[in-house]
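[Q] Does anyone have a clean structure-token version of this?
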Amino acid sequence: MHLIRLCLITFPPLLSMTINAETIEVDIAGLTCPFCVHCLQRQLEKLPHISTVDISLKHRKVRIVSTDYKIDIKLIKNTVINAGFTPVKIRTMSDEQ
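[A] Here you go.
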């Protein structure tokens, strides 16, 4: 009983980060070369509250992680379009799952 209480008191920031984390995966059309990956990654990393951007050229997918805030899907979609690519499918996943 005491050990559980100690963990909850010691690690509340860790618990809240896990609860609020969100991941978005976007299938991208037009992603054809390493330069495309670099350009898109630079644009997405400029967005507020984004902690990680991983892009797979092979699978033509982007995984975006936010640890503090809910990700604005419209902002992600517009950023992808403004970078010259087409978001084909967008999936939202919570780290709680």
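[Q] Thanks! Anything notable?
[A] Confidence is low (pLDDT under 50) at residues 1-19.
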